[in-house]
Specification:
This is Radical SAM core domain-containing protein. GO terms for molecular function: 4 iron, 4 sulfur cluster binding; catalytic activity; metal ion binding. Keywords: 4Fe-4S, Antiviral defense, Iron, Iron-sulfur, Metal-binding, Mitochondrion, S-adenosyl-L-methionine, Signal. Its cofactor is [4Fe-4S] cluster. One of its GO terms (biological process) is defense response to virus. With about 350 residues, the protein is α/β, with parallel strands linked by helices. The chain has one domain: TIM Barrel, CATH 3.20.20.70. The protein is built from 13 helices and twelve strands. The strands form three sheets. The protein has an eight-stranded parallel beta sheet. The longest helix has 24 residues. It is globular, with a radius of gyration of 22 Å. The structure holds iron/sulfur cluster. The site of iron/sulfur cluster has 11 residues, from loops. The site of iron/sulfur cluster (SF4) has 11 residues, from loops.
Length: about 350
């Protein structure tokens, strides 16, 4: 009897250890992207034993940038998403659009503008809907930071994984020269970094490298701020948006050569968070949804019909989308704030 009990005890321990180990190594479940019926035209992007499914015959909008408004309170001289009107969709339409995109395979939404915080309530409600109702893996915002408040973060911060804040220089005079605010940008930027930490939102920095800052040494400031990611874009000319004296902004005077961009990158690339993005990668690897819920084709005037009108799949047929560029620039990375996602073991 004694030996039977001991034997059963040992069996139970072996079972439990095995079971626990099985759980700790179990691949984290990912949402369905698309499961094609055959194996043709499929490629996999693999990371940590997980696969991202890409089907070349069908475009799957993994990550979408929704430019919900074109209005902005700043006047950056190189801006290519300048205010042509002040349209914004009713919240119900925007929610419906998010839901359609989710059904089509979207996993990450990024809210941008213009300045999205000029529509703070709309933004908060939509972020909440995307996280709470649609359970999107990642909800992020690109902002100039000037209008973000602690009150807003207290209410909606829990629905935001990443806040990307623009900062082109750690010398305020340069920011002013660029049009990035009127002299208080850095103060607000630093305050926001703190606020994001308090509210458990990943802090990311976006820098546009241009003629006024490409020689700047930002090492000390970046070390101090310690962002999760620091994306540095080479200033981009989009002919019909910011590339002539007929457009609202003329970014040609901000332009730098590839060598000048490289000079900046070489000075800063040792930071773990540093992600450079030259013009070659940037031009067509973002999937952009405009304020009318139409996809934009960068470099071409024409946009698609609204996804509410024709559906996501149909609209995507008219989009030139550089999927390879998206992967190349690390479009899939650790895009969800750990404690807000069951997917926190994914190291993208
Ligand atoms: S903050 Fe952004 S949207 Fe506003 S003007 Fe500058 S680049 Fe354009």
């Amino acid at each position: 009897m004694y030996y039977s009990v001991v034997f059963l005890g040992i069996l139970a321990i072996i079972f439990c250890v095995h079971h626990l180990r099985d759980h700790s190594h179990r691949p984290v479940t990912r949402p369905n992207v698309v499961h094609p019926k055959d194996d043709q035209n499929i490629s996999y992007q693999s990371s940590n034993d997980q696969s991202i499914l890409v089907q070349s015959s069908k475009k799957i909008p993994l990550s979408v940038n929704y430019h919900l408004t074109r209005e902005c309170n700043y006047k950056c001289g190189f801006c290519f998403h300048t205010a042509t009107d002040s349209h914004i969709e009713p919240i119900e339409n925007a929610q419906k659009a998010m839901s359609l995109l989710k059904d089509a395979g979207m996993r990450k939404i990024n809210f941008a503008g213009g300045e999205p915080f000029l529509k703070a309530k709309f933004l908060g409600q939509l972020a909440k809907y995307c996280k709470e109702t649609l359970h999107l893996e990642s909800v992020s915002i690109v902002t100039n930071g000037s209008k973000v408040t602690d009150k807003w973060l207290s209410e909606y911060g829990k629905y935001i994984d990443i806040m990307a804040v623009s900062c082109d220089s750690f010398d305020e005079k340069t920011n002013v020269k660029i049009g990035r605010g009127t002299g208080k940008h850095l103060e607000k930027f630093k305050e926001l970094a703190q606020m994001c930490e308090t509210h458990n939102v990943m802090f990311k920095v976006n820098t546009v490298v241009n003629i006024y800052n490409y020689e700047e040494d930002m090492n000390a400031a970046i070390t101090e701020i310690n962002p999760k990611r620091w994306k540095c874009f080479q200033v981009l000319i989009v002919p019909e948006e910011n590339g002539s004296d007929k457009t609202l902004r003329d970014a040609r005077k901000f332009q730098i050569t590839d060598e000048q961009f490289k000079l900046f990158c070489d000075k800063h690339r040792h930071h773990k968070c540093f992600v450079p993005e030259g013009n070659d990668v940037m031009a067509s690897s973002y999937l952009l949804l405009d304020e009318y819920l139409c996809f934009l084709n960068k470099g071409v005037k024409e946009k698609t019909k609204s996804i509410l009108e024709v559906g996501v799949e149909e609209a995507l047929k008219d989009v030139y989308w550089d999927e390879e560029g998206f992967m190349e620039r690390g479009g899939v990375y650790e895009w969800s704030e750990p404690s807000k996602s069951a997917q926190h073991k994914l190291d993208w």
